[in-house]
Amino acid sequence: MHTKRSLTGDRPTGRLHLGHYIGSLQNRLELQKKGYDQFVMIADVQALSAQAEHPEKVRENILELALDYLAAGIDPKKTTIFIQSLVPEIAELTVYFLNLVTVLRLGQNPTVKTEMVEKGFTKTVPAGFFMHPVNQAADILAFRSDVVPVGEDQLPMIEQTNEIADKFNRIYKKTFKKVAPLLSKTPRLPGIDGKAKMGKSLGNAIFLADSGKEIREKVQKMYTDPKHIHVSDPGRVEGNTVFTYLDAFDPDVKEVQRLKKQYQEGGLGDVALKKRLAEILESTIRPIREKRQKLAKNPKAVMRILEKGTEHARTEAAKTMHVVRKAMKIDYL
Ligand code: TRP
Known about the structure:
Tyrosyl-Transfer RNA Synthetase, 2 domains, three-stranded parallel beta sheet, binds tryptophan, EC 6.1.1.2, tryptophan-tRNA ligase activity
Protein backbone atom coordinates (compact mmCIF):
# COMPACT_ATOMS: atom_id res chain seq x y z
CA MET A 1 0.00 0.00 0.00
CA HIS A 2 1.36 3.41 -0.97
CA THR A 3 -0.98 5.64 0.99
CA LYS A 4 0.74 7.58 3.72
CA ARG A 5 0.19 6.67 7.33
CA SER A 6 -0.52 9.01 10.18
CA LEU A 7 -0.80 8.33 13.89
CA THR A 8 -1.62 10.62 16.73
CA GLY A 9 -3.35 10.41 20.05
CA ASP A 10 -4.56 12.06 23.22
CA ARG A 11 -4.59 11.03 26.82
CA PRO A 12 -8.07 10.39 28.13
CA THR A 13 -7.83 12.88 30.97
CA GLY A 14 -10.77 15.14 30.15
CA ARG A 15 -12.69 16.75 27.37
CA LEU A 16 -11.00 18.20 24.34
CA HIS A 17 -10.79 21.97 24.08
CA LEU A 18 -10.07 24.55 21.41
CA GLY A 19 -6.34 24.15 22.04
CA HIS A 20 -6.61 20.53 20.89
CA TYR A 21 -8.80 21.60 17.99
CA ILE A 22 -6.26 24.08 16.69
CA GLY A 23 -3.21 22.08 17.77
CA SER A 24 -3.99 18.80 16.06
CA LEU A 25 -7.67 18.00 15.43
CA GLN A 26 -7.89 20.34 12.44
CA ASN A 27 -4.87 18.67 10.88
CA ARG A 28 -6.33 15.22 11.51
CA LEU A 29 -9.49 16.24 9.69
CA GLU A 30 -7.35 17.53 6.84
CA LEU A 31 -5.36 14.26 6.62
CA GLN A 32 -8.59 12.30 6.73
CA LYS A 33 -9.90 14.35 3.81
CA LYS A 34 -6.69 13.78 1.87
CA GLY A 35 -7.14 10.02 2.21
CA TYR A 36 -4.31 9.27 4.63
CA ASP A 37 -4.38 5.90 6.35
CA GLN A 38 -4.93 7.51 9.71
CA PHE A 39 -4.84 6.07 13.24
CA VAL A 40 -6.10 8.04 16.21
CA MET A 41 -5.23 6.57 19.58
CA ILE A 42 -6.80 6.98 23.00
CA ALA A 43 -3.59 6.93 25.06
CA ASP A 44 -4.86 5.32 28.26
CA VAL A 45 -1.51 3.67 29.06
CA GLN A 46 0.14 7.07 28.98
CA ALA A 47 -2.63 8.62 31.08
CA LEU A 48 -2.16 5.90 33.70
CA SER A 49 1.57 6.64 33.90
CA ALA A 50 0.75 9.93 35.64
CA GLN A 51 -2.22 8.75 37.70
CA ALA A 52 -1.89 5.03 38.37
CA GLU A 53 -4.05 5.36 41.47
CA HIS A 54 -7.03 6.75 39.54
CA PRO A 55 -7.93 4.18 36.88
CA GLU A 56 -11.60 5.16 37.16
CA LYS A 57 -10.80 8.66 35.88
CA VAL A 58 -9.02 7.24 32.86
CA ARG A 59 -11.84 4.78 32.25
CA GLU A 60 -14.62 7.34 32.33
CA ASN A 61 -12.77 9.56 29.88
CA ILE A 62 -12.44 6.90 27.18
CA LEU A 63 -16.01 7.42 26.02
CA GLU A 64 -15.77 11.21 26.44
CA LEU A 65 -12.71 11.37 24.21
CA ALA A 66 -14.27 9.10 21.61
CA LEU A 67 -17.37 11.33 21.59
CA ASP A 68 -15.22 14.41 21.08
CA TYR A 69 -13.41 12.78 18.15
CA LEU A 70 -16.57 11.64 16.42
CA ALA A 71 -18.39 14.91 17.05
CA ALA A 72 -15.46 16.91 15.67
CA GLY A 73 -15.63 14.94 12.45
CA ILE A 74 -13.22 12.03 12.82
CA ASP A 75 -14.96 9.48 10.63
CA PRO A 76 -14.48 5.86 11.71
CA LYS A 77 -14.99 4.74 8.11
CA LYS A 78 -11.84 6.61 7.13
CA THR A 79 -9.83 6.83 10.37
CA THR A 80 -9.08 4.02 12.79
CA ILE A 81 -9.84 5.05 16.38
CA PHE A 82 -8.40 2.66 18.97
CA ILE A 83 -7.49 2.16 22.63
CA GLN A 84 -3.77 1.97 23.39
CA SER A 85 -3.83 -0.62 26.19
CA LEU A 86 -5.74 -3.06 24.00
CA VAL A 87 -2.86 -3.17 21.54
CA PRO A 88 -0.25 -4.99 23.68
CA GLU A 89 2.15 -5.01 20.72
CA ILE A 90 2.85 -1.37 21.60
CA ALA A 91 3.90 -2.38 25.13
CA GLU A 92 6.09 -5.11 23.69
CA LEU A 93 7.79 -2.70 21.31
CA THR A 94 8.28 -0.23 24.18
CA VAL A 95 10.30 -2.81 26.11
CA TYR A 96 12.69 -3.39 23.19
CA PHE A 97 13.00 0.34 22.53
CA LEU A 98 13.92 0.97 26.17
CA ASN A 99 17.22 -0.79 25.47
CA LEU A 100 18.04 1.84 22.86
CA VAL A 101 17.67 4.90 25.10
CA THR A 102 19.76 6.06 28.02
CA VAL A 103 18.26 7.28 31.28
CA LEU A 104 20.35 10.42 30.81
CA ARG A 105 18.76 11.14 27.44
CA LEU A 106 15.28 10.63 28.84
CA GLY A 107 15.97 13.14 31.56
CA GLN A 108 16.82 15.69 28.89
CA ASN A 109 13.53 15.45 27.01
CA PRO A 110 12.05 18.98 27.29
CA THR A 111 8.43 17.79 27.12
CA VAL A 112 8.95 15.39 30.01
CA LYS A 113 10.92 17.96 31.99
CA THR A 114 8.10 20.50 31.71
CA GLU A 115 5.40 17.97 32.56
CA MET A 116 7.36 16.74 35.57
CA VAL A 117 7.38 20.25 36.99
CA GLU A 118 3.67 20.75 36.19
CA LYS A 119 2.73 17.52 37.92
CA GLY A 120 4.99 18.02 40.93
CA PHE A 121 7.03 14.96 39.96
CA THR A 122 10.53 16.40 40.33
CA LYS A 123 11.49 13.96 43.10
CA THR A 124 8.76 11.34 42.79
CA VAL A 125 8.43 10.64 39.11
CA PRO A 126 7.10 7.15 38.33
CA ALA A 127 9.46 5.25 36.01
CA GLY A 128 6.57 4.68 33.60
CA PHE A 129 6.00 8.40 33.30
CA PHE A 130 9.71 9.13 32.92
CA MET A 131 9.99 6.75 30.01
CA HIS A 132 6.81 7.72 28.22
CA PRO A 133 8.67 9.21 25.23
CA VAL A 134 9.79 5.64 24.52
CA ASN A 135 6.21 4.45 24.75
CA GLN A 136 5.22 7.25 22.41
CA ALA A 137 7.94 6.22 19.94
CA ALA A 138 6.47 2.73 20.06
CA ASP A 139 2.96 4.12 19.40
CA ILE A 140 4.19 5.91 16.31
CA LEU A 141 6.54 3.24 14.97
CA ALA A 142 4.26 0.27 15.64
CA PHE A 143 2.13 1.74 12.87
CA ARG A 144 5.11 2.78 10.71
CA SER A 145 3.67 6.26 10.49
CA ASP A 146 4.92 8.88 8.08
CA VAL A 147 3.40 11.89 9.81
CA VAL A 148 2.29 12.78 13.30
CA PRO A 149 -0.07 15.74 13.67
CA VAL A 150 0.82 17.30 17.01
CA GLY A 151 1.07 20.55 18.91
CA GLU A 152 4.38 22.35 19.25
CA ASP A 153 4.97 20.98 22.77
CA GLN A 154 5.28 17.45 21.36
CA LEU A 155 8.17 18.18 18.97
CA PRO A 156 10.82 16.72 21.31
CA MET A 157 8.80 13.48 21.28
CA ILE A 158 9.05 13.21 17.51
CA GLU A 159 12.75 13.98 17.69
CA GLN A 160 13.27 11.19 20.18
CA THR A 161 11.15 8.83 18.08
CA ASN A 162 13.45 9.41 15.13
CA GLU A 163 16.53 8.82 17.29
CA ILE A 164 15.12 5.49 18.43
CA ALA A 165 14.18 4.51 14.88
CA ASP A 166 17.69 5.38 13.65
CA LYS A 167 19.31 3.36 16.39
CA PHE A 168 17.07 0.38 15.75
CA ASN A 169 17.83 0.56 12.01
CA ARG A 170 21.57 0.78 12.69
CA ILE A 171 21.81 -2.02 15.23
CA TYR A 172 19.39 -4.52 13.74
CA LYS A 173 18.08 -3.88 10.26
CA LYS A 174 16.58 -0.98 8.33
CA THR A 175 12.99 -1.24 9.48
CA PHE A 176 11.62 2.21 10.25
CA LYS A 177 11.20 5.34 8.13
CA LYS A 178 11.76 8.83 9.42
CA VAL A 179 8.60 10.39 10.82
CA ALA A 180 7.65 14.02 10.33
CA PRO A 181 5.60 16.19 12.68
CA LEU A 182 2.68 18.05 11.18
CA LEU A 183 2.24 21.32 13.06
CA SER A 184 -0.82 23.52 12.93
CA LYS A 185 -0.82 26.96 11.35
CA THR A 186 -1.44 28.54 14.76
CA PRO A 187 1.42 27.12 16.82
CA ARG A 188 -0.27 27.49 20.18
CA LEU A 189 -3.63 28.80 21.24
CA PRO A 190 -3.39 30.66 24.55
CA GLY A 191 -5.91 30.14 27.33
CA ILE A 192 -8.66 32.74 27.82
CA ASP A 193 -6.44 34.32 30.50
CA GLY A 194 -3.77 34.96 27.86
CA LYS A 195 -1.39 32.37 29.37
CA ALA A 196 0.69 30.46 26.86
CA LYS A 197 -1.14 27.18 27.29
CA MET A 198 -4.80 26.24 27.34
CA GLY A 199 -5.41 23.47 29.82
CA LYS A 200 -8.25 21.85 31.66
CA SER A 201 -6.40 21.99 34.97
CA LEU A 202 -5.46 25.62 34.36
CA GLY A 203 -9.16 26.60 34.26
CA ASN A 204 -8.65 28.67 31.11
CA ALA A 205 -10.08 26.40 28.43
CA ILE A 206 -13.05 26.58 26.07
CA PHE A 207 -14.27 23.03 25.51
CA LEU A 208 -15.65 21.52 22.32
CA ALA A 209 -18.77 20.63 24.29
CA ASP A 210 -19.31 24.08 25.89
CA SER A 211 -22.77 25.63 25.66
CA GLY A 212 -23.42 28.93 23.91
CA LYS A 213 -23.73 30.58 27.32
CA GLU A 214 -20.42 29.15 28.54
CA ILE A 215 -18.70 30.34 25.38
CA ARG A 216 -20.09 33.87 25.76
CA GLU A 217 -19.10 34.05 29.43
CA LYS A 218 -15.60 32.81 28.75
CA VAL A 219 -15.08 35.21 25.85
CA GLN A 220 -16.28 38.07 28.06
CA LYS A 221 -13.56 37.19 30.58
CA MET A 222 -10.90 36.97 27.90
CA TYR A 223 -7.66 38.86 28.39
CA THR A 224 -7.25 41.80 26.00
CA ASP A 225 -5.16 44.94 26.46
CA PRO A 226 -5.40 46.10 30.09
CA LYS A 227 -4.57 49.66 29.00
CA HIS A 228 -7.44 49.80 26.52
CA ILE A 229 -10.11 51.30 28.77
CA HIS A 230 -12.27 53.58 26.63
CA VAL A 231 -13.55 52.72 23.19
CA SER A 232 -11.66 55.70 21.80
CA ASP A 233 -8.31 54.57 23.31
CA PRO A 234 -5.80 53.02 20.94
CA GLY A 235 -5.31 49.34 21.84
CA ARG A 236 -2.69 46.66 21.43
CA VAL A 237 -3.21 43.79 19.01
CA GLU A 238 -0.06 41.78 19.85
CA GLY A 239 -0.61 39.58 22.86
CA ASN A 240 -4.32 40.40 22.75
CA THR A 241 -6.02 37.03 23.18
CA VAL A 242 -9.17 38.03 21.32
CA PHE A 243 -7.15 38.82 18.20
CA THR A 244 -5.13 35.61 18.53
CA TYR A 245 -8.43 33.71 18.52
CA LEU A 246 -9.82 35.73 15.61
CA ASP A 247 -6.67 34.92 13.64
CA ALA A 248 -7.22 31.24 14.38
CA PHE A 249 -10.99 31.00 13.82
CA ASP A 250 -12.36 33.94 11.82
CA PRO A 251 -12.67 32.94 8.16
CA ASP A 252 -12.86 36.60 7.08
CA VAL A 253 -9.14 37.46 7.16
CA LYS A 254 -9.62 40.86 5.53
CA GLU A 255 -12.17 41.95 8.09
CA VAL A 256 -9.85 40.88 10.91
CA GLN A 257 -7.10 43.04 9.38
CA ARG A 258 -9.51 45.97 9.29
CA LEU A 259 -10.57 45.41 12.91
CA LYS A 260 -6.94 45.27 14.02
CA LYS A 261 -6.25 48.61 12.36
CA GLN A 262 -9.32 50.18 13.93
CA TYR A 263 -8.42 48.79 17.35
CA GLN A 264 -4.88 50.15 17.12
CA GLU A 265 -6.08 53.58 16.06
CA GLY A 266 -8.82 53.71 18.69
CA GLY A 267 -12.56 53.54 18.18
CA LEU A 268 -13.19 49.83 18.57
CA GLY A 269 -14.38 48.58 21.95
CA ASP A 270 -13.67 45.22 23.57
CA VAL A 271 -17.39 44.53 23.90
CA ALA A 272 -18.04 44.68 20.14
CA LEU A 273 -14.89 42.72 19.40
CA LYS A 274 -15.76 40.00 21.89
CA LYS A 275 -19.28 39.76 20.54
CA ARG A 276 -17.86 38.94 17.11
CA LEU A 277 -15.50 36.32 18.53
CA ALA A 278 -18.22 34.67 20.65
CA GLU A 279 -20.41 34.32 17.55
CA ILE A 280 -17.58 32.82 15.50
CA LEU A 281 -16.66 30.34 18.23
CA GLU A 282 -20.29 29.40 18.69
CA SER A 283 -20.60 28.68 14.96
CA THR A 284 -17.51 26.44 15.16
CA ILE A 285 -18.60 24.64 18.32
CA ARG A 286 -22.39 24.41 17.82
CA PRO A 287 -22.34 21.62 15.20
CA ILE A 288 -19.80 19.69 17.29
CA ARG A 289 -21.88 20.09 20.45
CA GLU A 290 -25.08 19.02 18.71
CA LYS A 291 -23.48 15.98 17.11
CA ARG A 292 -21.95 15.04 20.45
CA GLN A 293 -25.31 15.16 22.19
CA LYS A 294 -26.80 12.82 19.60
CA LEU A 295 -23.91 10.36 19.77
CA ALA A 296 -23.93 10.39 23.57
CA LYS A 297 -27.39 8.83 23.53
CA ASN A 298 -25.93 5.62 22.20
CA PRO A 299 -22.68 4.87 24.08
CA LYS A 300 -22.80 1.21 23.02
CA ALA A 301 -22.50 2.17 19.37
CA VAL A 302 -19.50 4.35 20.20
CA MET A 303 -17.81 1.53 22.13
CA ARG A 304 -18.45 -0.74 19.18
CA ILE A 305 -16.57 1.72 16.94
CA LEU A 306 -13.64 1.55 19.37
CA GLU A 307 -13.79 -2.22 19.39
CA LYS A 308 -13.62 -2.47 15.61
CA GLY A 309 -10.90 0.18 15.40
CA THR A 310 -8.83 -1.55 18.05
CA GLU A 311 -9.12 -4.88 16.26
CA HIS A 312 -7.80 -3.33 13.06
CA ALA A 313 -5.03 -1.45 14.90
CA ARG A 314 -3.91 -4.68 16.54
CA THR A 315 -3.61 -6.46 13.22
CA GLU A 316 -1.46 -3.66 11.84
CA ALA A 317 0.78 -3.46 14.92
CA ALA A 318 1.21 -7.25 14.85
CA LYS A 319 2.55 -6.98 11.28
CA THR A 320 5.23 -4.56 12.50
CA MET A 321 6.13 -6.81 15.43
CA HIS A 322 6.64 -9.67 13.03
CA VAL A 323 9.24 -7.62 11.14
CA VAL A 324 10.77 -6.31 14.39
CA ARG A 325 11.21 -9.77 15.87
CA LYS A 326 12.90 -10.95 12.72
CA ALA A 327 15.22 -7.94 12.62
CA MET A 328 16.11 -8.53 16.27
CA LYS A 329 16.71 -12.24 15.65
CA ILE A 330 14.18 -13.24 18.28
CA ASP A 331 11.85 -15.00 15.86
CA TYR A 332 12.91 -18.32 17.36
CA LEU A 333 10.01 -20.58 16.58
N1 TRP B 1 1.66 12.70 24.52
C1 TRP B 1 0.55 13.09 23.71
C2 TRP B 1 -0.19 14.22 24.43
O1 TRP B 1 -0.16 14.32 25.62
C3 TRP B 1 -0.41 11.96 23.45
C4 TRP B 1 0.21 10.86 22.65
C5 TRP B 1 0.50 9.61 23.08
C6 TRP B 1 0.64 10.93 21.29
N2 TRP B 1 1.08 8.88 22.09
C7 TRP B 1 1.17 9.65 20.98
C8 TRP B 1 0.61 11.94 20.32
C9 TRP B 1 1.69 9.38 19.72
C10 TRP B 1 1.15 11.66 19.07
C11 TRP B 1 1.69 10.39 18.78
O2 TRP B 1 -0.86 15.00 23.80
